[in-house]
Structures are given as structure tokens and as C-alpha cells.
Amino acid sequence: AFALVIRPTNALFVLFITLYVAVRYRKQIVPYLFFASLVAVPFMIFNYSVYGEILAPYYRGSKFVANPDFFRALFANLISPGRGLFLFSPFLLFSFVGLFLKTAARKADLLDGVLLLIFVLHLCLVSSFWNWTAGASIGYRFMVDMLPILCYWLVNLFLYPPARPQVRWAGAALFGVLLAASVWIQWRAANDAAVRDYNRWPNFVYDLRAGNDARIWDWSDIPYLRTKTYEEYKKQSAS
Question: Does a cis peptide bond (omega within 30 degrees of 0) precede residue 202?
């Protein structure tokens, strides 16, 4: 319920997890809905007091339109240098390794299927936005809500490790490298102004009308590898 307060697209979580609880844990559905209402009801009352509706205008779905660049946006949300989930947090590739290992061990269950469905539908939904570039942000802003799912699958690496020791050690080494790279990337994005200025220099990357969104696929200008801020670029150009 609180996830929905944070972002409208989490309605997918609300819908499918509620259905999952109703099917898998019928006796718990009443307390489940009760505790959800402790968040949902005040939220709707607040919206009604401010907007005269139980949901704010932000929740009307005006961004959910037929994006002519749907597939370009879909892959951009996953692997582009400007917004790619697996470019900014490459260790999360192991989430799907974890899901594979659990499936191979015949331990995958209904919850895994529900979470995979949510992941796919969420990816399709955010890729259908007219402003699929995610505005002035760093990294995978529109995919960040999928982190709980991906981290849940990562646990399977420890629960269902490969049988061969060589595979386990090689996998652990690769995971460590990707995890270290992910931490470094996120640290730079949070602390270095040069990474932040990717959004406005040499132009506003989110200005679709000017065609600036092409920069999101520019492999020669990866945000977290930038070394100069906008001000430093200006000084260099002036000189």
C-alpha cells in the first residue's frame, strides 16, 4: 500500500500480490487488507481533501500512452548506457541466475511466477511512457521499484548453489567483481557532479522533441564515466 503511495506504477504490485495472498493464504487475506487500509484510507482521505478525488492527478495515467519507441525504450531501461538497469547495477544480472537455479532445483513456486509477471509488466508499462527517458535522473529511475524482486531472487544463489565447486567459485568471483563495480557506479552517481550534469550537457537528454534522447544510447558518453562537470566544460569551451 505504501509502495503505491510512492509511485502509481506499483499498482501492479498491489494487484498481483493481493491476488496471490487471496489464492495462497486465504485465511490471512482479511488482516492483510486491514493493515493495507491503514495506509490506503488516510492516503485517499488526504487526496480527497486536496483534489476532491480519492487519487491525485498524478495517478490518472496520463503518461501511459502508446509510445512509438516502445522497444527502444524497453531495451534502454535494461541495457542502455544512459538508463540501463544492468549497466548501473550489473550484479543484478545474477538475480536471473538465482531464479534459474531455483527453477532447476524444482523449487520455483507460484510467488516466483507472480514476481516474474510483475517484472515483465512493469518493464512494459514504463517503456510505454511518452517521457520514457525518466527526466533529469541518473540511472534506472523507472526500474528501481523492481529491486525487491531482484534481491529476492539473489537469495537463491545461496540456497541452491551449483553442484560443481569450480562453477561456484567462478560465479562467486564474477559476482564479487560486478557487486564492487555496482557500488562504485552508485557512489559516483550519488557524489560526483560530473555524473549529474549528464542530463543537461551537451543538451537536455530528456527533450524528446529535439531528439536528444538519442544520447541515452551513446556508448561514448556513459554518465558514470564522466570526469568533467558542466561548469568545467563551459570554461574549456570559452578558452
Answer: yes
Sign of the CA dihedral 188, 190, 194, 199?
positive
User: Which residues touch 67 (CB under 8 Å, ≥6 apart)?
Assistant: 73, 127, 128, 129, 130, 132
Half-sphere CA count of 26, side-chain side, radius 13 A: 1
C-alpha cell at 55: 487519487
Instruction: For the beta carbon of residue 107, count every other beta carbon within 10 angstroms.
Output: 12
Q: How far is CA 52 from CA 13, 42, 151, 180, 217, in A?
A: 26, 14, 38, 48, 42
Do 131 and 125 contact (CB within 8 A), yes or no?
Answer: no
Count of C-beta atoms within a 10 Å radius of residue 223: 26
Half-sphere exposure in the Cβ direction for 225 (13 Å, CA): 10
Note the pLDDT tens digit of each residue in 35-66: 999 999 999 999 999 999 998 888 876 556 66
The candidate with the shortest Cα–Cα distance to 56, out of 46, 65, 68, 42, is 46
What DSSP designation does 226 have?
-
pTM of the model: 0.90
